[in-house]
């Protein structure tokens, strides 16, 4: 583990090697004078499925807050190995939440738009009934329940369609394939809100400061403003990057995947914007920032 930082309240970030974890690390390294000491632990340093390790780390750090970016995120593989998805996304989250409760730590737990079945055609609010399809989505929904049940000081932050300069994501895949191929076929009948993980990282750090003013045990939705299909996102990505590759719109049935995905998973972000006085950037503007960065 890294040396313990100063006397500031400690914020532990799990899954620090993932794309959101890395975005938080970049944000913290570029933001002097944050009133917290951050500890970033990757899966090899803190494995959520190991209760002894979770207990030892949390008891040693006694964090003010934990931002749980750790997750089993291979949506299609989860269909073949549901136990692995559940172990990290549900059981592991319960271990983490239980230890957070012991030391009164705020748990910011990241969840997903995939908890919805996609049958709606207006943005999903937090109190809309979930109906997850597929093993990944079910494991994440179960993780929400367990986080709230084992630690009263939990906020669930659901987000959607994350991309960033780090790790594997749709935007980076389009940039790579766009250079390799003359044509890409991309589904246009799934609609959501692409979300730039560095924007979410800023929001998460912002929310930490509201602990004393907010009611805990709540669910919030965070996604960039506006909506898009995967086709729209691909076209915009290639256009911003100046890559001359044709993008052909196709339907979901033309690109079958093991896991079912919601046709519509736009999240209503009114609650998080008003409770935390947050400005959320428009997805095309954030995509511009990402492409400029890459
Ligand atoms: N990506 C999306 O489009 C999307 C959309 C909506 C919601 N979300 C949610 O947003 C959060 C962050 O996603 P992300 O895109 O940053 O995911 P990511 O890049 O896949 O990162 C997840 C991290 O979790 C780690 N991890 C996996 N199993 C673990 C375990 N048992 N214990 C500790 N760490 C473990 C992984 O480490 P290894 O690589 O070493 O296994 C990886 O570093 C997740 O909760 C995800 O469900 C993501």
Short description:
The protein has 294 residues and is of the alpha/beta class. It is 38% helix and 17% strand. It has a domain at 10-160 and 197-224 and 266-280: NAD(P)-binding Rossmann-like Domain (Rossmann fold, 3-Layer(aba) Sandwich).
How would you sum up this structure, described in words?
By secondary structure, the protein is of the alpha/beta class. Helices cover 38% and strands 17% of the residues. The protein has a domain at 10-160 and 197-224 and 266-280: Rossmann fold (3-Layer(aba) Sandwich). A 6-stranded parallel beta sheet has the order 2-1-3-4-5-10, sandwiched between helices. It has a two-stranded parallel ribbon with strand order 6-9. Strands 7-12 form a two-stranded parallel sheet. The chain is globular and about 55 Å long. The model has no long low-confidence stretch (mean pLDDT 96). The structure holds NADP nicotinamide-adenine-dinucleotide phosphate. NADP nicotinamide-adenine-dinucleotide phosphate is lined by residues 14-15, 17-21, 43, 46-49, 69-73, 88, 92, 110, 112-113, 140, 159-162, 167.
Topology:
Layout: E1 10-14, H1 19-30, E2 37-41, H2 51-61, E3 65-68, H3 82-102, E4 106-112, H4 135-150, E5 154-159, E6 162-163, H5 170-180, E7 183-187, E8 191-192, E9 195-196, H6 197-208, E10 218-221, E11 228-229, H7 230-241, E12 246-250, H8 270-275, H9 283-293
Parallel strand pairs: 1-2, 1-3, 3-4, 4-5, 5-10, 6-9, 7-12
Antiparallel strand pairs: 8-11
Bound molecules: NADP nicotinamide-adenine-dinucleotide phosphate (NAP).
């Amino acid at each position: 583990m890294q040396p313990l930082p100063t006397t500031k309240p400690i914020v532990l970030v799990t899954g620090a090697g993932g794309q959101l974890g890395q975005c938080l690390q970049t944000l913290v390294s570029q933001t002097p004078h944050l009133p917290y000491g951050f500890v970033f632990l990757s899966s090899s340093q803190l494995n959520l499925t190991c209760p002894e390790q979770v207990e030892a780390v949390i008891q040693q750090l006694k964090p003010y807050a934990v931002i749980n970016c750790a997750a089993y995120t291979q949506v299609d593989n989860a269909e073949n190995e549901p136990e692995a998805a559940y172990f990290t996304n549900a059981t592991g989250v319960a271990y983490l939440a239980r230890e957070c409760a012991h030391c009164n730590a705020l748990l910011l737990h990241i969840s997903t738009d995939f908890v919805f079945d996609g049958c709606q055609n207006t943005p999903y609010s937090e109190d809309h009934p979930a109906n997850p399809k597929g093993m990944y989505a079910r494991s994440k929904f179960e993780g929400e329940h367990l986080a709230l049940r084992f630690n009263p000081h939990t906020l669930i932050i659901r987000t959607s369609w994350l991309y960033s300069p780090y790790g594997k994501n749709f935007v980076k895949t389009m940039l790579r394939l766009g250079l390799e191929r003359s044509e890409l076929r991309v589904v246009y009948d799934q609609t959501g809100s692409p979300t730039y993980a560095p924007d979410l990282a800023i929001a998460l750090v912002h929310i930490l400061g509201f602990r004393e003013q907010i009611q805990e045990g709540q669910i919030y939705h965070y996604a960039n403003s506006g909506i898009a299909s995967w086709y729209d996102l691909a076209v915009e990505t290639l256009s911003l990057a100046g890559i001359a590759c044709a993008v052909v719109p196709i339907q979901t049935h033309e690109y079958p995947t093991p896991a079912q995905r919601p046709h519509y998973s736009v999240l209503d972000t009114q609650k998080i914007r008003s409770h935390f006085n947050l400005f959320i950037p428009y997805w095309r503007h954030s995509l511009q920032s990402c492409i400029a960065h890459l």
